Structures are given as structure tokens and as C-alpha cells.
Amino acid sequence: MEYLDKIIITVIAEDSVLYESPYWGQHGISFYLEAFKDKIKSNILVDVAQNSQALLYNMKLLSIDPCSIDAIVLTHCHYDHTQGVVEILRAIGKKDLPIIAHPDIFRLNFITSPYLRHVGIMSGDSKKMIEENGGTLYLTDESFTIMPGLITTGEVFRQTNFEEVGIPLKTISNENKIVEDIMKDDISVVASLKDQGMIVITGCSHAGIVNILKHSSKLLGLKKFRAILGGFHLIEASRDRIDKTVEALSLLDIDFISAGHCTGFEAQVALYEKFKNKFLPLHTGLKFIYEN
Ligand SMILES: [Fe+2]
Ligand SMILES: [Fe+2]
What we know:
Elements: E1 6-13, E2 30-37, E3 40-46, H1 52-61, E4 71-73, H2 79-82, H3 85-92, E5 97-101, E6 110-111, E7 117-118, H4 127-132, E8 135-139, E9 145-147, E10 150-152, E11 170-172, E12 178-180, E13 189-193, E14 197-201, H5 209-220, E15 224-231, H6 239-250, E16 253-254, E17 257-260, H7 265-275, E18 279-281, E19 287-291
Parallel strand pairs: 3-4, 4-5, 5-8, 14-15, 15-16, 15-17, 17-18
Antiparallel strand pairs: 1-2, 1-19, 2-3, 6-7, 9-10, 10-13, 11-12, 13-14
Helix pairs in contact: 6-7
Bound molecules: fe (ii) ion (2 copies).
């Protein structure tokens, strides 16, 4: 079992900014990870939100140089996590920069209410555009090791009976049928630290946050979660689903949760009521440091 020595996680894009915050908010999420092991430091961008101008502005305020980015993980296809990835690649200005994602990420992914709209990867961020701008795609449905102690979940096994995607999304199958899109491409990032346990970073948790945590636990053979950070996509969930999610989370060994983006106010309140000072709403500019 391999562990990181230390990880610093900075929230560089999120839907909310605090009172007197200098950062620019946007609907979307992006994390900058600084992972340390032995004498190696690797910097990973997890998602790019949807407005690269706001993302680069926040990075500048936080003294994060885009050229320092060594790889990008795209947690799923949605535009509020992927739009402008080509702009970010241009700002990074490197060749062969690894972009890690699920093989289905470039598919059509749409809603028909309130009107027909593709909500997946936009044409400006196509496979071809990414490759022409210095990105090398690592597309796999398996758990991917970014460095020892830092992995992606790969496709998440769905096991709970109360979790689902959270939005009525559709796609068109290879047989040209309109089918429900169950967001197989939803992946998360998991860091592990020897004395602290796992730190899970999610985009929207379309696979279900409880499914993601159970899957991570099984992958790594660990039970302790030092922190869960990201979106839980409970914004349109029923009260019953929110209650079942919070109850299931309370049965796991979790030290701290910071959830925002698509989590929704009702779920944030429910999480706060259960976890009290072990819960914090996620917002732009937050920095988390975990060290052995
Ligand atoms: Fe999202
Ligand atoms: Fe999403």
C-alpha cells in the first residue's frame, strides 16, 4: 500500500464566495492539488469549472502558476466541470499533458426540460481540440494511479438503493436509441495518507456519494476517511434521499465533510445537523492541508 506524505487542496472555483472574498465565483468546481511523496511534488487540477477567465483570475490571486500543473482529471462530462479545458491547456503551455477521464466522457449528454440542451463537453473542448493544444488523453474506466497514494476511482460500482444520477439526463446509444444516461463517466479522486486515511475529492457525485465512498474503501482496503470534499448533487433530491444519504454517511468513519456546488442548501443543512463542526460548506478559496 502506497501513501502520500502530504496533500494541499485548494478550491479554485466553486459556486459561492464568502463575504468580502476577492475571488470570482461561478457555477462549477475546480480543485488544485499539491501532492507530496518522498522528494516528489506533483500538481493536479481536478476539473476546470466552466469559465476559464474566472479560474485563471482566482489562480493568479492564489499565486498558482498554470505552468505548475502536471496533469488534469476531469470527473465527468458536464460543462460546469470541463468547459474551457482547452483555454487552460493553452495557459499551461505544455506538450503531452495527461488528461485523465472515463472513455465515455465525449458522448452526447442532454436534457430536454426546460428545453433541449447538450450539457456535456462542448465543441471547443473536443478530443481533437484537447490533443491539438497539448493534452494527452488517458481514457479508462479503471482506477488510475496518478502517483503512489493518489488515484482516481474509475467507474464507480452502484450499490445503494437510494442513490441515482440526480438529473434526468439522456444520451443516444450505438443502436440510435434515446436512453437514460446513468453517468458511468462519474469518477472521483482519492488521496491516501498513512495515519490520516482517505481524502476523497468529488465533482458532482452523480454515482452517489455513498457509492463513491464504499467503492473507494474497497479499492484501497481502508475504512477511515479524513475528508470528503466536493459536490454531492443532492440539490434536487427528495427529503427521503437526503435523509438516507446523511444517515449512511454517519455510519462511515468520516472526520470531515466540505460539500458545496450541486449539494444544495437542504442537504448542506442536513449534513450540518448531523456532523456539526465536522461539516463546512465548500466555497472558493478554501485550502485544506493534510499531512502525516
Ligand atoms: Fe456540477
Ligand atoms: Fe454534473
